[in-house]
């Protein structure tokens, strides 16, 4: 049986619990170590992230009733030395589908019938879609300013949407208050460790497709779901001896919302309190990342560089990528603006992997 371990007090709790966090208030981690990486353990007959299930913490075969064929997105050399992973080529047009598949598979396995979640849009849409597939009732809380098209997609899956005035962080507070007051299951992509199990497949796919990991990996960081999942998978490959060298990770934040950038700059262990300004990179506009300490620990452990995406460069980056054939959303464009910024600061670099997080049609607002 799988267990959680509290990141604060170290107490073990069965992963069947309906509680979102430890009784002490600490966040859960999974008490799980994947087996050593072995290509032969990939189920090449399964066309979803669950082809890597031998390396994921899963309880039973509930994933079979949940998967929508997520993952296995193309990894394309956009131009010499720049690889893009076309992650919007997934069921809900977003990279969050990997994590949602892992999370909802767990929910299905323990008999969850209804849930709530807060999101800036993409994660909410993913969880709504996978809950629809699994037959789980779902309500999503989104902050005002969320793309109307994202809201329409969430509602199309049968989920009820609550639009909350104020910031993304306030939206989360409102949702968590309901979880506390009513005891409804919190299907949150940041809090629940099973989401990260799905996100690990991002790296496993690249490694299977290219036979290696590029020297540089660009990862957007708001709440850090892709960042944490990718780092966990890279650590797994590195510890297994499958890759000899850990890649140089370039983490990025919006220059209008940069609590982790400021913390890294000041050498602090916790996110810095910042004044959040409106940004078109809505997917990473997180002023108080719940797993900030965990993210900063990973950054310190692997000497990860954090840069900010210049707000006035995002739309130009979006247009430039569109002219190469990929119509991406604003937050995805921030990845390219931040990579350009990194090269300005540290010199030209090549052999880089950048994710195309979401489709452009989702952020036309």
TrEMBL record:
PROSITE patterns: DEHYDRATASE_SER_THR
The keyword DNA damage appears for this protein: no
Cofactor: pyridoxal 5'-phosphate
Annotated protein name in UniProt: Pyridoxal-phosphate dependent enzyme
Keyword Lyase tagged: yes
Keyword annotations: Lyase, Pyridoxal phosphate
GO molecular function, a single term: L-serine ammonia-lyase activity
All residue ranges annotated as the Tryptophan synthase beta chain-like PALP domain in the record: 66-358
A biological-process GO annotation: L-threonine catabolic process
Pfam families: PALP (PF00291)
């Amino acid at each position: 049986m799988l267990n959680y371990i509290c990141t604060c007090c170290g107490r073990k709790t069965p992963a069947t619990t309906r509680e979102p966090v430890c009784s002490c208030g600490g966040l859960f981690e999974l008490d799980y170590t994947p087996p050593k990486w072995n290509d032969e353990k990939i189920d090449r007959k399964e066309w979803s992230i669950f082809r890597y299930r031998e390396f994921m913490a899963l309880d039973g075969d509930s994933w079979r009733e949940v998967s929508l064929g997520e993952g296995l997105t193309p990894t394309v050399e956009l131009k010499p030395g720049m690889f893009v992973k076309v992650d919007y080529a997934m069921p809900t047009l977003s990279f969050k589908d990997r994590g949602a598949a892992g999370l909802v598979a767990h929910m299905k396995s323990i008999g969850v019938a209804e849930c709530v979640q807060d999101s800036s849009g993409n994660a909410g849409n993913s969880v709504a879609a996978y809950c629809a597939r699994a037959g789980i009732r779902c309500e999503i809380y989104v902050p005002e300013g969320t793309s109307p098209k994202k809201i329409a997609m969430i509602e199309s899956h049968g989920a009820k949407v609550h639009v909350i005035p104020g910031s993304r962080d306030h939206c989360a507070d409102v949702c968590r208050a309901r979880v506390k007051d009513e005891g409804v299951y919190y299907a949150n992509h940041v809090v629940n460790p099973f989401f990260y199990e799905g996100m690990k497949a991002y790296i496993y796919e690249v490694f299977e497709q290219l036979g290696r990991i590029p020297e540089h990996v660009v990862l957007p960081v708001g709440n850090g779901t892709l960042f944490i999942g990718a780092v966990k998978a890279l650590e797994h490959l590195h510890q297994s001896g499958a890759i000899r060298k850990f890649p140089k990770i370039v983490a990025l934040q919006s220059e209008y919302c940069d609590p982790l950038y400021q913390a890294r700059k000041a050498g602090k262990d916790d996110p810095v309190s910042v004044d959040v300004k409106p940004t078109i990179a809505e997917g990473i506009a997180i002023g108080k990342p719940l797993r900030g300490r965990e993210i900063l620990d990973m950054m310190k452990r692997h000497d990860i560089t954090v840069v900010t995406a210049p707000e006035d460069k995002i739309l130009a980056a979006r247009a430039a990528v569109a002219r190469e054939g990929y119509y991406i959303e604003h937050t995805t464009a921030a990845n390219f603006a931040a990579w350009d910024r990194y090269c300005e600061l540290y010199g030209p670099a090549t052999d880089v992997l950048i994710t195309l997080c979401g489709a452009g049609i989702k952020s036309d607002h």
